[in-house]
Amino acid sequence: MRVAFLSSEAVPFAKTGGLGDVAGALPKALVAEGVDATLIHPLYDTTDRALLRERVFDNLEVDWLGGRRTVSVYLSYAAGAPAFLIDAPEYFARGKVYGFPDDHYRFAFFGRAALALLGRLGQAPDVIHGNDWPSGFAAAWVRAGRPWGGFLANTRTLMSIHNLAYQGLFDPGDLYRLGFKGGEESNVFLSNGAASSLKAGLMTSDAVSTVSPRYSFEIQGPEQGHGLDWLMRQRRDRLVGITNGVDYDAWDPATDPHLPAHYTADDLSGKRACKLELLRRFGLPEEPGRPVIASISRLVAQKGFDLVRQVAWQVLEAGAAFVSLGSGESEYEGFFQRLKDSAPHRVAIYRGFSEPLAHQIEAGADIFLMPSLFEPCGLNQMYSMRYGTVPVVRATGGLDDTVEQFDPETGEGTGFKFGPYDARALLGEVREALHWYTRPEVWRRIQRNGMAVDNSWGAAARKYVRVYHALFDL
Ligand code: ADP
Asked: 2-245+458-473: what fold?
């Protein structure tokens, strides 16, 4: 089984969120399952050149905007699977991954170049596995090309949704210039008066997957369908939810190179050292007995910050300290800044993106807060469990699939969950967590329950392999 895995971000080349973690780990896990998986990824100016092994092509020709563009392609093994990185500086050397008015041109070019690269490599993959809106163009081109046979005539496509809210919208007037010449080829993009590369990918791929079973159901309803629930229902026979795994090579408190001390479920003393170091790092009082509640997140409405905002003071009054890592919408950045200004000995914030700090907070905190409005899978709750940091989450999407409510009767469970998107419900579970935190033997139990959960990628990779094979039975 030969799989070309297309992603606009993948650790260690680029990461803005969960897709980066997934695309950095899944190809490697597929290789471990015997799949001939290759990652295809843009070469950004922010990518560390030391990760690149060699330039494999300096003259890959790409049909583009009615003409030809020539790009270089680099090979890297830094993600554990072979990765080809497409060097097109006019599109990818811009200091960040997304957020430009011509993003649709940038990632349409990426799709074009990926297909040109596959042609140049000379062996058609069995499956092209695209991820999120930046990969939608490639799926659409594969479908558009099928009536003419050719190189990819027998290649199947799978499109994975990591977040249905990001749809790659652009002006449909650009479709023609991008090479979609009307009729069905262009219609697949149209969505409420705009063009959507995600929608095109979902319409034209042979099957669709998403990153947790619960999310695969939620997106079939109007509440979480982001206007595409009709399409999800239409494709439900070819829609599967596979929960993401965790790359324990990168996220294991026993070996994590970012941590000042290491620990395991049997000996948690290193976690205490990590907590003290975290408090020092942020200039918070070194009070190891005070519970530290953490958040590591893009500061966007999806992540439930409207609820956090409503309960923050009560949580501080209940005795907790708060550490937040993230940046995003100004109203949430402003909220955390004000909270910190009002309670500087209890609140610490780092506005920005820092991979080392994300690891240090996972290790040093006691409780991890993830009250998302919706959450396709979520990774930090799984990292938290492995790091003995107890998650408090809203029971939605992958959060519901991966966190088991703690039951004091049986001692089972890995965290605390609330259902309604409601500040009181969140506060109730935070208080519940804080209550059990004061009972060290119970708290250890919850920590150990979480640390014992095996969310490694192997099981998920085997499910993807089954999906790849099923594409040939359609
Ligand atoms: P999403 O993909 O919606 O952002 P996920 O929970 O699936 O949410 O994945 C987010 C990933 O990005 C996690 O690995 C998390 O640690 C990381 N992350 C988010 N914000 C930051 C930040 N400010 N600094 C470092 N890592 C971050």
From this structure: Rossmann fold (3.40.50)
Cα 454 to middle of ligand 1, angstroms:
20
Q: Which of 15, 96, 211, 298 to mutate to test the pocket of ligand 1 (most atoms within 8 A of CB)?
A: 298
On the question of pLDDT at 359 being above 90, the answer is yes
Instruction: Ligand 1, residue 375: give the atom nearest the CA.
Output: 3
pLDDT band at 330 (very low <50, low <70, confident <90, very high): very high
Find out if CATH 3.40.50.2000 is the number for domain 269-454.
yes
**Residue 148 binned pLDDT confidence (cut-offs 50, 70, 90):** confident
What are the domain boundaries of the chain?
A: 2-245+458-473, 269-454
Residue 149 has pLDDT above 90, yes or no: no
Complete DSSP assignment for 364-385:
H-SEEEE--S--SS-SHHHHHH
Helix (H) or strand (E) holding 178: helix 175-178
R_g (Cα) of the chain, nearest Å: 23
Count the Cβ atoms, other than its own, within 10 Å of residue 194: 14
User: By alpha-carbon position, which residue is closest to atom 24 of ligand 1?
Assistant: 353
**Two domains, one topology: 2-245+458-473 and 269-454:** yes
The model carries a pTM of 0.96
- Output the CA 296–ligand 1 centroid distance in Å: 6
